[in-house]
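TOKENISED FOLD:
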Amino acid sequence: MKPDSQISPNEMGRINANKTSKSDATEILKSHSYLLEKGDFGGLFAKDIDIELRAYTHALKHLEDARIQINLRNFIDYIERFEQFFEKPMDAVHAFYSIVGYWGDTSLAMKIGETTKVNVVDPSRGVSSEPIEVEAPHFEKFKKFVENHYIFTNEGSGITYDNYFSRFDEVISRIDPEYAKQHGIFFTDHNLSKFAMWFVHEKFEKNLSENYIVFDPAGGSGNLITSLDWRGHMKHKIVSELQPDLLKVIERRMRVHERHIGNYTVIPKTADNRGLNFLDRSGEQYLAELENVLREKSMHIDKPLAFLMNPPYKNTDENVASREQVEAEYIIDESILELTGTDAGRERYLAFLGQIVNIAKSQHKQHGYNPILMILTPTSWLIPRPTYVPFREVFDKHFKYENGFIITSNEFFALKGKWPLAFTVWTYNKRAESNSNKVRLTDLTYLKRSDLASVNWSARISDDRTIKGMIGGAKLIRYDSKRKSIKDWCNQSMYDFKRSRTKSELHTSEIVGGLPITDPRRKNSKTYGIPNSAFIGAMDNGTPVRINPKKRDKRFRSSETYSTVWFRFDTAFLDVNKSRCTGVTPDQKGYCAYDLSSAQKTFVWYAITKVVSGKYPLWTNQCDLWKPRINNKQEAYFYSLCFAFGLAENRCAVTKFEADNPIEGAPEVFIDNPMSTNNLNSFWNIVLDSEIVARPTKATELVEAIKALYMYWAKEHCKTGILTNVGLKDEPYFKYFAYDDFLTPNSGLIQIKKYADQQLKTDLIRLFDDISAKTKAVKDEIYRLLVDEFKYFE
């Protein structure tokens, strides 16, 4: 029946359906471009509405096309639609990558005899895919799907089947995110892989495949090792993986490109349906396994190995059961842990480095070869961080550093964190007892994914000026421990009162630890301080804790008179936002200003953490803060600024720990403010105030503003010497005690500011606004001196 404008679409459809014969209905269904059926969005295997809506819209736009295009923008959606034909999501992934290189605009899906196996044939090229399993009930729909679509490629613009393989990380992260997470695999960006090989070609070795056998034992999706081919490095390469799913993808990738056939050996054979753990045997045993497999192909390892890899970045302290579920549990041989140590060995990439040392030693011992290493890693072992120092000492006895660069992690990898990722090149060199490795890395953290994507790598880079222009102005960064750490400069041992419970405390009903009796943290497995003491520390939120006076050191840093200022410091740049200045000992990582010399170092340390937070170069992320090179002529001024900044930005609070809490007999302890300008006996007045220079004026202007506020506060708001019920009862330094909350002339700035905001004391708020503006000016000046004058990051 022809359409009638007087009849609704629903009614027209019903009329036509009633008039359609069963044979015609079958033919109509067979000719569909897109099909939804009753129940598609319900049940265990419900389709994703968003994906289907995009597919439906795409089909509508291309009704006149012979086939619907699958391209790099939408192919993951189509893989998810592929799941309707298979029992498991991973089966759909394997099916797609089995046929992607054979799925053109004339391809056909054909059964193999009477079996349930199907292959996709591209008659225009005379090639066919490997057989894939498609159960009989799904075959017709699968055939229809394949023959209504095609994979888009364009050799001229550099879009090949390989681009679909190169984005396997995105596929697996969407289809099975737990798999990607537990393997610690962040597959190497396709263009970054090409750039890394350009870097090796330009900066280290132009004939890599002529002089070495390239080997990637953690091949992932094959991006890194296949990146060699754009330079025509067509000699033999070896690739392996722990996970057989990944090996299958790599082998299919090789099979799609005929030029790869014979140039790669995948170990073990994918027909074995197993992976090969790089870490569960000695270096000699692993090398022997490689040689055995190559011997079957009448080949030999007759050159030094060139390890090319992006190993998993996964700490094995985490959930073992989750890793085992996706076959991501690496067993590590004792010979590796002997090199790395147990702690460092928990970082999987360091275990890979340890095994590389063992294999390189074995190859050198057997044949005199000097293997090379080209590897993507975090920068922590290059600095090295303290945990990795022993391993670096071992590693440096065997490998000589050649060259490298750093990029930004989450710019090129599907990572939540933002940190520097290094690509480094090393040569095995056992001639000396230890190589004098000075690690210098080209800082390319400014590069964007789009920068490298804009390079036409398929053009074989006849004009390398495109890349050279991108990196021409890059700086060289020194990664070593030559800079004196700020902790060593401070010359104090770290102090804390967080501790494990003693054996007797584990099996007693008596009260242990120094937290207030109602603090819920008393239930923690760790405890804090002791229950009966006149010495007080504070948790990170400011809750007072009774601490052990026996832990006072020679400098009497734990003082009953509170004539000291305390700081919580982490040593690494990535933790600078955790620092704080307080009047009592922090629960962890405590350092103290107890005289002028210690104050100069701790207040400078504190100021640096605050002024560089969010502004330090990315390459410093894994580095510890180091001592600044303070210009002698500006030394007094710089210290003055740091003291003034500490006066404005501290978390000192006046409070008291009530008697008989947490146990009967515990004394009442009053906690005063060592940074009060009103108290003539405070640490500020006794030690620091006289150090503030008059010229330049930024520091003294800030100090005078704070002094003016304190004087005004005492005169106009705290005339009686103490205010009670001031609205601060919920603050951690008051909430666990029975007495009324209070303020004194010496209360901390954070307390007075909180009171002013809550009570809408506009006179005080105006004074605090002035202090805030002057604090910012001081902070900016500290940063200017530190970075521009003292060249802190150079």
Q: What stands out?
A: DSSP finds 30 helices and 27 strands in the chain. Residues 41-47, 316-327 have pLDDT under 50 and may be disordered.
